[in-house]
## 1
Amino acid sequence: MPEMRHDPIQKRWVVIATERGNRPSQFLRPKGNWREDTNPFLEGNESMTPPEIYAVRKKGTKPDTPGWQVRVVPNKYPALKIEGNLDRAAMGQYDKMNGVGAHEVVIETSNPDEDITDLSLDDAILVTKTYRERLTDLMKDKRFRYVLIFRNHGTLAGASQPHPHTQIIATPVTPLTISIELQSAKDHYHAKERCLFCDIIAQELRENRRIIAQNDRFIALSPYASRFPFEICLLPKHHAHDFREISNDDLIDFTRLLQDTLRRIRIGLDDPPYNLMIHTAPNTGSDTPRPSYWNTIKYDWHWHVEIIPRLTDVAGFEWGTGLFINPTSPEQATEFLRGIQLG
Amino acid sequence: MPEMRHDPIQKRWVVIATERGNRPSQFLRPKGNWREDTNPFLEGNESMTPPEIYAVRKKGTKPDTPGWQVRVVPNKYPALKIEGNLDRAAMGQYDKMNGVGAHEVVIETSNPDEDITDLSLDDAILVTKTYRERLTDLMKDKRFRYVLIFRNHGTLAGASQPHPHTQIIATPVTPLTISIELQSAKDHYHAKERCLFCDIIAQELRENRRIIAQNDRFIALSPYASRFPFEICLLPKHHAHDFREISNDDLIDFTRLLQDTLRRIRIGLDDPPYNLMIHTAPNTGSDTPRPSYWNTIKYDWHWHVEIIPRLTDVAGFEWGTGLFINPTSPEQATEFLRGIQLG
């Protein structure tokens, strides 16, 4: 069972997941290699993964057989495990609990050569609908406080399988980065009774210097204080706190803008490695004590997607301080990405 | 002039330093290449760097000529610039200021083939004494709130020059990671009137499961909630909040344990890339308003060194949450590093 430990100095939890690889020799490989030679996400290789949790399939086909378009399976090397209780305990002055959670893989297509960026809009919507489906299901588990949907593209962004996939991790704590964002949104709302993100969108629309692309319902921005070159934030234009509640109509505009944005960085930056994360609201239905910010979460939180191309190195300075040095201004990044011809 | 921008959501500052490289084509290179073909840190190449700030030299030799053992120069591609005022301003709801600060390089030796790990103890002490010297000098500048001393080893850890060097960056803000640590230490002290780090050292000495190495005055630990495999924290055993105040005697024991620890990871983990950061107290002499935690900083803060071997990838989950997944338990890491024969 993975163990979660709390750092009393940096006030963050960490998952000690020794079953994922505990011998030092495992670290002596060069970086950037795929983990397995045979592709377990290929149609026909369904027996190489744990049994499927969910799939979009041709009528009449059985689970764990060919005939699917999107398939969700448990991660074979889960960071957190679905069974068990948290068993919170003190270890002297330290804190720990069991690493209870979920770790799923959304196989986005049976074709290993095209990912969500290449798919037709209709096929890509099957993927984003699957995100909504799995999020809704995982949030029913009262042990989970947060569910993160994320996508690692390329080995340098941490992908261990080249076959296009998204990952979903449900955690028994609200992670630190999310807590800070939730608190900022809450502080802003309590002072002004307006959503911080809605205010940002209004300013960006007014200034029009950091808008990469938009459609009726969604907008893609270079954040004013971007940590990384070509960092992107994609948000619903109208206030919405929970990705579970996205309508089918909104899902079309969301998926269209997501594909548009990912195509811009692929074409403009030569298919760079990137990380993509959906920051939705925490699980207000969890059975843990509710922090006060959950009372107004519907009004103060605004779900959004972060996309981080991995073009620069994160080194000692960034690790030591949390202060990032970005060599490309968001305005330069916007001008460049806006100008990309999508063909 | 680099610009500092504040993110209202994640509550962190970022440095937009476009002079370091602003064209997208610069990011299209493969990672892991050294920036320059000719080594500007070599003895004889003094004219390739900006004029030296400090050096340990043979008597009678002039600045910016051969004859040095340790040499400190401004970074040729500084993240922050020494001249100018902060000029704090609001940009709608965003905040910015000028990127005023210092960015220096400590060239640890004139021999490109040996770094602080290989040097004799006496020569290595010249390097750590230089750290103390530069820290003391930079802290006199009232514009600087924090000074970070850090070392990137290997291209995968972000080093852009193979010649052994350490970097020093002085910042006009207290960076987020440091703020969180300072706040934790303060909270602990205010509740218990004891230093959090002293309490941790006492528990670790009692349990003796995560001590990698120690001598009379210093201890190297695997932190209980390590984010990374083989992460190491090196601390003075007796309470000390400010690296500037380290005595010459303590500097000997510190340098000895630092070399011992770095040799263990080099031998045991096949010379891995790593980042090393010294977390000393913030600059209480700065002319900015003093947060309340500075009142007791002498008692509640405890300086320490963090060493992070870069063996695992930081991917979307970690970026999206700040929650780290560590595949090696600190107890396993300790057992392994303790067992290394230093020859």
Note: Chain A is about 25% helix and 25% strand.
## 2
Amino acid sequence: MMAISFRGVFPILPTPFLPDESIDVASCGTMVRRMVEFGVDGVTILGVLGEANRLTDSERAEVIEACVEAAAGNVPVVVGASHSGTKASCELAKGAIVKGAGAVMVTPHAEAVPSDDKVRGHICAIADATDAPIVLQDHPGSTGVHMPLDLVLSMVAEVPTIACIKQEALPSPPRVAALKAKLDRPTPILTGLGALYGAFELAAGADGFMTGFAFPEVLAAMVEADADEAFNIHHQYLPLIVFEGQPGVAIRKEIFRRRGLIAYNTVRAPGAGLSQTAAEQLDHLLTQTFTTTDIQQRITPGTANR
Amino acid sequence: MMAISFRGVFPILPTPFLPDESIDVASCGTMVRRMVEFGVDGVTILGVLGEANRLTDSERAEVIEACVEAAAGNVPVVVGASHSGTKASCELAKGAIVKGAGAVMVTPHAEAVPSDDKVRGHICAIADATDAPIVLQDHPGSTGVHMPLDLVLSMVAEVPTIACIKQEALPSPPRVAALKAKLDRPTPILTGLGALYGAFELAAGADGFMTGFAFPEVLAAMVEADADEAFNIHHQYLPLIVFEGQPGVAIRKEIFRRRGLIAYNTVRAPGAGLSQTAAEQLDHLLTQTFTTTDIQQRITPGTANR
Amino acid sequence: MMAISFRGVFPILPTPFLPDESIDVASCGTMVRRMVEFGVDGVTILGVLGEANRLTDSERAEVIEACVEAAAGNVPVVVGASHSGTKASCELAKGAIVKGAGAVMVTPHAEAVPSDDKVRGHICAIADATDAPIVLQDHPGSTGVHMPLDLVLSMVAEVPTIACIKQEALPSPPRVAALKAKLDRPTPILTGLGALYGAFELAAGADGFMTGFAFPEVLAAMVEADADEAFNIHHQYLPLIVFEGQPGVAIRKEIFRRRGLIAYNTVRAPGAGLSQTAAEQLDHLLTQTFTTTDIQQRITPGTANR
Amino acid sequence: MMAISFRGVFPILPTPFLPDESIDVASCGTMVRRMVEFGVDGVTILGVLGEANRLTDSERAEVIEACVEAAAGNVPVVVGASHSGTKASCELAKGAIVKGAGAVMVTPHAEAVPSDDKVRGHICAIADATDAPIVLQDHPGSTGVHMPLDLVLSMVAEVPTIACIKQEALPSPPRVAALKAKLDRPTPILTGLGALYGAFELAAGADGFMTGFAFPEVLAAMVEADADEAFNIHHQYLPLIVFEGQPGVAIRKEIFRRRGLIAYNTVRAPGAGLSQTAAEQLDHLLTQTFTTTDIQQRITPGTANR
């Protein structure tokens, strides 16, 4: 299995649907190939943005296969394998690896009575079930699970295959700094949250991004820049980052559509589709942000499109 | 498709696991066949007690097939088909019906922004996807969705295949009474919540039970009795009902095991297994409740085992 | 300050209101004096049942004064002093003690990011603010705070004035047993939850009850009885315990009214009042439970009213 | 009572504390007087940022009196009067008005069983209790109450004293647009959420801001500008807006302190104080945002400090 550095940008991709809400396999391929052209370090599928919680298992498999095939070994495909049951999460993880995933991303699951021991048992069992690298996602906003810092540190110490922490507990910059200071083996930290706090997280020591912002080139430029330039790039795109970060996946899917990455902005019920207000404001915002730049092409932050 | 009356007792069955947490197919068969011998009006699988949220789709299929085969047409098998995505819920429902389910049980799914319209759309879409009878489960305690009475009434009015309401919103007796008073077509109401409020729900007009209490014969006797006798039977078994109703599924699975219905009391992680205290108290409680009655046989409430 | 044993029964009392929702001071006095006649070991006011979260601070003071005066030193008055701010909780605690409370009952407060350290800091600060005995209430169902067992143990070890644990985390019997086994100094454990699991909690080692069930004489009889007799008494009154335990405070207030303890069953908005169904079922249930016994008098479980 | 236009900027002010967490009355005065000098249209106290949930009632009164005195009739003081009990909320509202508040801000309170009717009853009762203008705050993020659009519209139609909607339900721009389109009497809409979506909310029709961002001059400039200029101002300050918007009140209080508005950044327990990371990043961010501009003086967005 290919070693993955987990530094840089691993965009979280939506799951494209046709207007009837069935999987749009062709768009899976287009989207991944274009991401490779954009220079990403990997792609992440079947996360929250991927509406993973609205798919059947066979649909999950379909998406994995299409994306792995399109990645064609050029970049690793990280696959979300979270499930409310430990054994099922193990099965999803193993199934993803068999289909060519380079790593799996997992979260703890909220139980009626929160328990650090239960969280540890859940994560360790998944790690035991496969040799693949594991991205430990810490996103209380979607999971409802608040992992104390010490719990994360001890799991990283205990489980050698935890290869990356996707750090999305708020407030994120001090949490990144604390992890960097206390992790007893070097473990890459990627952040998410739509890159809302991106410049602050990088300044605190984060190694890159694993998030759904539709312009991974912007995030890649931030990772490669020095702190002041990263701040400036972040600042430049911050209205778009904020706008995209509104709840739901419809705005992101619409931008993916406008970039030519997917064919339709269809969101699966009961998720909300694009509002009229959002569509109109997005029109204006993209013009303000990119003026005449063709967003269907790779964006070069900091120069042409200022 | 066999018409189902939805009066009487439709026990919610656990999903039996072997000690390694894999599906115990043999116990699926035993459990269903014994339930038929106990005289139940149907069986319900893949609910919360069935740990449905800890199964992969293929495991779900395995459980359905084993239970439908064991039911052998003697009683209908009601299959839980709830999912956080509408389309996936439709697929689960259709898959269950194809495998021989007599009806499907569905719930709304909690969204970040609660919306009666979204709930309606979700339920109607599932109803549109199949001709099968639908049990509309209203259990805010597990779903987090609080459906106003008027929403339930209007969905029943709009969707002719809603064949039963599984009423578990608290407080349940006044809710049963309100439904009975306002439903514009006769719709059976079964209650759950482990039968904790069973006598009060029957007195308010409920038609029976769809719940996990491990002695459905007791509930059947209550349904057939007059109000005072139903109260007395409920009273007789109330310590057991209360004890069983403690959070988690471990106590119920242990009673199922002691009754010879399943081979092991295994609970899937991250669910909690049987505590030492619960095991000891259950020993004593079963003796207090049944004295010398053999609980592996059908219980006859109200006579031999008082 | 009078030492309090925290063994026996410390009923949680409602806050009586006149029909216009103002404090019914006269009923405060009646209620407390009658409780003393019923033989309780103390009374507890301004808990959840006391609608403490719907009172202004000056109304709280009014209730405390009326109840302390009526207790007249015959039994201690335990006063709820929970607040979402630590300093405010300290002030409420000190104010209660000045007014004659014998102890204060406190809970942790749910913060956006749960933290055992924050919980510890909150409780310790309140303990530092007063010399009075502290009842540490562990009721995740109302507070949303899940304290790990080790946290409770360490706070008891650290704070000598924690004089009692009000144990209401589910499942409660194994939790009581674990506390009893692991507490490094003898600390009374009272349970609540409307006494739903009362016999099981006593069997696991609990020292008594601090709960809202409207017949504290029943609970007192359980505490004094051996295990089998306690089970029998609990069993006898279990339908009433279950019925009273339905959500909201209206049923309890109505029983208090029927017992002549308070003048009106008024519940403060936005709390729900007594439903027609509940009122009718309560009529019937009281007759079934007590036949001709006068519930305005002290009940003697286990003899006259079987 | 002075009529209030509810257009422009009504900053939500923190409650200043001394290092021992007691009320810093002097800073109340300084803060309000400086806000008047900054040209705000009113000030709002005892909201979430004001740690209102960590104050006793008498401390609330102290804060109101100090702020009203400092406002000296130059601008109206809007006072938060939310409470979990309806009658207590009425008392808080009346008490605030008596002390000179120009309006009260109220929210619905989350009940165990959500109910539009209960929300309506709560808000209407408060409106009935006073003649003062009411700001209806719709902030599900802090209240847990999701009011359907129709409920808000009908309350505005029914209650003539609802003088302003503080619109903070997400996503906010389409919600502002929908309110503007459907309100049957002109009702000002102010938005909050730290101004994160400020330019988008103004573009959708909002009338101004009622939020805690520590530079109300920036928001005032946005309100007075045309859409493109408002976008540009918002864009200019967006890193600061994002940074300030991290959970908790510590960063805001620290900026208030650096601006000379309050003497200490003390946060009441169990709230979190300023992290080392946040303090360092704030240093850098203020320099990047304001270069040599003196933030203790009134800021003039769009010119000197670009």
Note: The interface with chain B takes residues 113-116, 140, 146, 148, 169-170 of chain D (CB under 8 Å).
